Structure formats: C-alpha cells, structure tokens
C-alpha cells in the first residue's frame, strides 16, 4: 500500500484529482475530492488511515503545513486533517488536535522567554500511518537552545497519536544538548518519516552535523530508531 500512498502524494500535491484510480477499484465517476483552507498547502502530505483493522472504516489523513490552528498565539503552525473516505460532501475533513497548546515559556534571568517556537513550524509536512498509529511532524519547529543566551534552532518535532487520536505523544529526538549546526541543532527531525513493518518509528533528520561536509550525505539518511509509544 505504501507504493499507492506515494502515488497519492503525487496526485494530491500536484493535481488534487481523483483518489483511487490506480490502486482501488473505485467508481471513477464519483471521485473523492478534498479541499482545505486556501494557502495552507493542503495535500502536501497524505496517507490512508484505518483505525480498526476489524472494521471496514477508512479515512484519508491530509497534511496542510501552513494551516492555522486553534493553538493560541501560533500563526500557521500547520495541521493534519482527518477526511472521511470515500468523501461524502464538501465538508468531509476536520483538523486533528495533535497539539492544542501555545509555545512553552521558560524564565531565564528573571525574563520570560520562549522555550519553543511553533509558528511556521510546518506541522503536517509529513504524515504516516501504521494501523491505528499515526505520526505527523513539524520539521521546521524551532526551540531555544539550553545555553544562557538561547538561540532558535530548527530541531524539528513529531507527534504520535494512538487509539484513534485519543492519546498523543511528542517525539523530538534532536531537542537535546548537542546543539548548533555541528550537532543536531539544525536536524529538522521529521523531514521524512515512516514506520517499520513492526511499528517502530523512523525519522529522517537531514540537518544533523551539518558542517561535517561530506558526511552530510550519509547523515541525510541519519535515522533514529526508537519506538515512540509502546
Ligand atoms: C493564518 O492567520 C494569519 C493571521 O490571522 C493570516 O495572516 C494568514 O493568512 C492565515 N494563513 C492561512 C493559511 O490561512
Ligand atoms: C454521508 O454522511 C451522512 C451523514 O454523515 C451519512 O448518513 C451517509 O451515509 C454518508 N454517505 C455515504 C455515501 O457515505
Ligand atoms: C476517529 O477519530 C476521528 C477524528 O477525530 C473521528 O471522526 C472518528 O469518528 C473516530 N472513530 C472512532 C471509531 O472513534
Ligand atoms: C534499531 O532497533 C533495533 C531493535 O530495537 C536494534 O536491534 C537495532 O540495533 C537498532 N538499530 C540502530 C541503528 O540503532
């Protein structure tokens, strides 16, 4: 199915046309067509989702990395939409609340400062499902480094949802003390993402150890290999 899913990504991103023509025996006279907010890059990522293997309910998850959300104080944080499949009417998609919160703040030298920066983080740039598990990432999520004079670094972050979006866990492996370009400060975790067959999460972090030049190519496929949720 992942071959199909990739084909769909192309179809959605470039053409926004028919769902299922190639991979499913679907009524081509009534294609499922989805649309999202203007300027939200709706369709940048897409995957099928089947919450319960015993039931024949199918949905399509569609990323819109520049969508506005209900998160207070966040501009264009990005979102993933849950869309009924086949599409039913013009309003078959709704935003999944992976994260409802504002930026976290920290008090440094008596001053309140951002610990993270969720505006323009491109959440929903990548989305993948594995049974009832869903991962979606914000590769341009920045956080404040742990030094006294904190800087913003694009470490990236991902959220995993289980049990049909009733529980969420954040997973941001590059948000550590190994900051700066020569560390994992520019990692952009979640730039690519997938699950292995047995459900382990695999994240691409192309920006890690940037200044090591030739190693960058190898590190483009630098994978972290941990289950986020057991
Ligand atoms: C998000 O909201 C901001 C501020 O309200 C607005 O300027 C921007 O156009 C909105 N973006 C999208 C994609 O709707
Ligand atoms: C469309 O949605 C309505 C209400 O949500 C539902 O009753 C109906 O069965 C759906 N139709 C199809 C073809 O799924
Ligand atoms: C799963 O979550 C979606 C999105 O919130 C919701 O529309 C759907 O009804 C849920 N399905 C079940 C079986 O709870
Ligand atoms: C990936 O995870 C598996 C199972 O936990 C482990 O055996 C393997 O050594 C890990 N590979 C890397 C590169 O970390």
Automatic annotation (TrEMBL):
GO molecular function: integrin binding
UniProt superkingdom: Eukaryota
PANTHER family in the record: INTEGRIN ALPHA (PTHR23220), INTEGRIN ALPHA-8 (PTHR23220:SF5)
Keywords associated with the record: Signal
Origin species: Clupea harengus
Any one GO cellular component localisation term in the record: external side of plasma membrane
Endpoints of the signal sequence: 1-23
FG-GAP repeat start and end residues: 27-92, 109-170, 175-227
Top-level taxonomy: Eukaryota, Metazoa, Chordata, Craniata, Vertebrata
Alphabetized InterPro entries for the sequence: Int_alpha_beta-p, Integrin_alpha_N
Protein name, per record: Integrin alpha-8-like
Swiss-Prot/TrEMBL GO biological process terms: cell adhesion mediated by integrin; cell-cell adhesion; cell-matrix adhesion; integrin-mediated signaling pathway
């Amino acid at each position: 199915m992942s071959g199909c899913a990739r084909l769909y990504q192309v179809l959605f991103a470039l053409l926004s046309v028919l769902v299922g023509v190639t991979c499913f025996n679907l009524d081509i006279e009534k294609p499922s067509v989805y649309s999202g907010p203007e300027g939200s890059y709706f369709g940048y990522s897409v995957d099928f989702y089947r919450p319960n293997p015993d039931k024949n309910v199918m949905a399509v998850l569609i990323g819109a990395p520049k969508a506005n959300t209900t998160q207070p104080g966040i501009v264009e944080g990005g979102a993933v939409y849950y869309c009924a499949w086949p599409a039913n009417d013009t309003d078959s998609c709704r935003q999944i609340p992976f994260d409802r919160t504002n930026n976290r703040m920290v008090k440094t030298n008596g001053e309140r400062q951002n610990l993270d920066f969720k505006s323009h983080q491109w959440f929903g740039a990548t989305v993948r499902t594995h049974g009832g598990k869903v991962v979606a990432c914000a590769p341009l999520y920045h956080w404040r480094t742990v030094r006294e004079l904190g800087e913003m670094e694009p470490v990236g972050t991902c959220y995993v949802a289980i049990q049909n979006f009733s529980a969420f866990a954040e997973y941001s492996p590059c948000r550590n003390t190994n900051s700066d370009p020569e560390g994992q400060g520019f990692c952009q975790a979640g730039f690519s993402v997938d699950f292995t067959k047995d459900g382990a999460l695999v994240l691409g972090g192309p920006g890690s150890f940037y200044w090591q030049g030739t190693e960058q190519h190898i590190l483009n496929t630098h994978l972290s290999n941990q289950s986020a949720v057991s």
